[in-house]
Amino acid sequence: MRLSRLLTATTATALVALTVLTGCSRAEESGSAPAASASPAAELRLGYFPNITHAPALIGVDKGLFAQELGSTKLTTQTFNAGPEEVNALLGGSLDAGFIGSSPAINAFAKSNGEAVRLIAGSTSAGAQLVTSPDITSPQQLKGKTIATPQLGNTQDVALKKWLGEQKLEIGQGPDKVTVQNIDNPRTLDLFKKGEVAGGWLPEPWSSRLVDAGAKVLVDEKSLWPDGKFPTTVLIVRTQYLQEHPDTVAALLRGEQKAIDFANSRRDEAKTVANGAIKKLTNSALAPAVLDRAFSELQFDNDPLAATFPQLAKDSVTAGASKTEANLQGFIDVTALNTVREADGKPAVDAAGLDKKQG
């Protein structure tokens, strides 16, 4: 009897061991990622800009739309003035997700060799223009002039330098070249009023602010893209956070969808909410005329316009912001986004093949 019990126990132990080994072997063979946490994250640290191009983020935070969807997950927010700063926070692990420009999003992916971040949704498209003093009516008249962009390598900096190259205009100092200076947007406005810069390739509301100060539109960037659509602001998340807390990321996306619906269906109220949030964060609100013009230039949609990103990666090299074209395979993950869109009765968005890593 005792021998029988011993054999049974030994057999059971062997079966358990065999099951564990078999499971490990299968996991190793499939290369599957660690199992995601079934519980929501304790905290979501979200970054965004106090800028009208980040209206869905401003509305989502101010109206409590993110917090409502996140439930027990604590929402901690941090604002940034430029994309490279936010990239450093994401790569440094002090931020979990962030609304950010398309070029810094690509840079974050490239700097981490395609590992640290994933683009999970769009937010805002269009809303960037080259605005100049009214006496400049053609590209050739930019020779000898100084044109501002918000920061080296940011979305507008890349767009301007690429466009100048297409116009056969050389960047540099001198009467036959165009000087490109990276200047904070508020200072660009001040320098334009003083006549010390001839204009800038700027995102809203700064292009509208310069127009309000007498500038004219020389180039509207949407005229350079099919259907006038190009990603101005997108939503990225740390890859590890996405893997560990998929439910929390889905909640963030539901909150963003509500904020976008609010911005599109209640336009006047959305302008007021976004402007009020900007005032809270910067102590300065937009003038009514600037706010109206800026909002009219923007389109809000969580479609990331994935098909534009290969061109954006090429443009970064053309503009000299990157030495080599970023490999964007695996950059975009719209799995959770499409689930949210389907639940909201919206069509799925296409990842344009950028959701797959090269084998």
TrEMBL record:
Give the signal peptide range: 1-27
User: In which organism is this protein found?
Assistant: Pseudonocardia sediminis
MF GO annotations: ATPase-coupled transmembrane transporter activity
Key word Signal present: yes
Q: What family is this?
A: Belongs to the bacterial solute-binding protein SsuA/TauA family.
Which keywords annotate this record? Answer: Cell inner membrane, Cell membrane, Membrane, Signal, Transport
Record-level GO cellular component terms: periplasmic space; plasma membrane
The record's listing under PANTHER family reads: ALIPHATIC SULFONATES-BINDING PROTEIN-RELATED, TAURINE-BINDING PERIPLASMIC PROTEIN
Write the protein's name.
Answer: NitT/TauT family transport system substrate-binding protein
Subcellular location field: Cell inner membrane; Periplasm
